[in-house]
Design a protein that fits this description.
Elements lengths: L1 H34 L6 H25 L9 H7 L1 H13 E2 L5 H16 L1 E4 L2 E4 L3 H12 L4 E2 L13 H21 L2 H22 L3 H5 L5 H9 L11 H20 L5 H29 L13
Helix pairs in contact: 1-4, 1-7, 2-4, 2-5, 4-5, 4-6, 5-6, 6-12, 7-10, 8-11, 11-12
């Protein structure tokens, strides 16, 4: 029964990855040809090369160390399926970062993103799992280490669109994102908590600190917010499965964003998600440590009395 459930989960996960990969590939192609992406074509290409090569190198090393077969062995289809997460990560990094005409920051962010999956693990569920959202962590570290690198301007997603097209593109992303997250990732509670929490923090900032509520809610109207909501914060590999935990996770990201805005710290989406993922990973470490201590306790035998001899 357990093997059947695992196979079912892997099948759903693979189907979801394929559709996410197709969606983000199409968006990047459309962005560079029609929408108005301001990055060069070289940047997504270098991101994909870095993502593929880093993923393959780390897999070869891990397989050799653990003396197991390569996960991408067995044909072209297995190789393509194995590289789907790297493909999504590379295109996400190239699409969301803006580094002028420089390629190194894009390659750096992508390699950090892929490498984080091999380094940052915690006992989550019944096995060790990576807990940092890969593309988000790569973007976060790059923004911190390279102050002249920024996030791609939100207007680039609709820069060359007019009239109804300004509404049609976000609508397509919302509909497709809702379908993918309802059927494959099953993260709709997380999305609801994140969006609801975002609205709540905006209203609270307005009531308590005089922030114009329209300005506080303005980010929710951008395509960048929609992409973050449906394609980044819902990453099934680094977000909770249980509904209650999803709600806490999404609400925490929204609360973190509000605190960062009050502290006048930019790039709040990415920094808040990284912080919440770190806290979740540390908490899993603590729980695992407590569990090991509990199972390692050995009952101390009591001395036998004379009557028991």
């Amino acid at each position: 029964m357990m093997n059947s459930n695992n196979n079912g989960y892997k099948s759903i996960r693979l189907a979801g990855l394929r559709r996410f990969a197709i969606a983000i590939t199409f968006l990047n192609l459309l962005g560079h040809t029609v929408l108005g992406f301001e990055q060069s074509w070289a940047q997504p290409l270098i991101a994909l090369f870095t993502a593929y090569s880093t993923e393959l190198i780390l897999e070869v090393i891990d397989a050799k160390v653990n003396q197991r077969p390569l996960h991408f062995a067995g044909g072209v289809q297995n190789l393509i399926d194995f590289l789907l997460p790297a493909h999504i990560t590379g295109l996400a990094v190239a699409m969301l970062l803006y580094a002028n005409d420089q390629l190194f920051p894009i390659a750096f962010a992508t390699s950090v993103a892929i490498g984080s999956k091999a380094i940052f693990h915690a006992p989550i569920g019944n096995r060790n799992r990576h807990f940092l959202n890969p593309s988000n962590f790569g973007i976060t570290l790059t923004l911190l280490l390279f102050p002249w690198v920024g996030i791609a301007p939100p207007y680039q997603f609709t820069e060359n669109l007019d009239g109804a097209a300004d509404w049609i593109l976000p609508g397509i992303i919302v509909i497709s994102g809702t379908f993918l997250n309802a059927k494959f990732t099953r993260r709709l509670p997380l999305i609801g908590a994140w969006v609801g929490g975002f609205v709540i923090q905006a209203v609270l900032r307005s009531l308590l600190f005089g922030t114009p509520v329209a300005a506080a809610l303005m980010p929710i109207t951008s395509v960048a917010f929609v992409l973050f909501t449906f394609y980044m914060v819902t990453d099934p590999g680094t977000s909770p499965i249980a509904t209650k935990e999803q709600v806490l996770f999404g609400g925490a990201v929204a609360a973190g964003y509000g605190v960062l805005m009050l502290s006048h710290i930019v790039f709040g989406f990415f920094f808040s998600l990284t912080a919440v993922c770190l806290v979740r990973g540390l908490w899993a470490y603590v729980q695992g440590w407590i569990g090991k201590i509990s199972t390692a306790r050995v009952a101390i035998p009591t001395p036998m009395t004379v009557g028991e001899i």
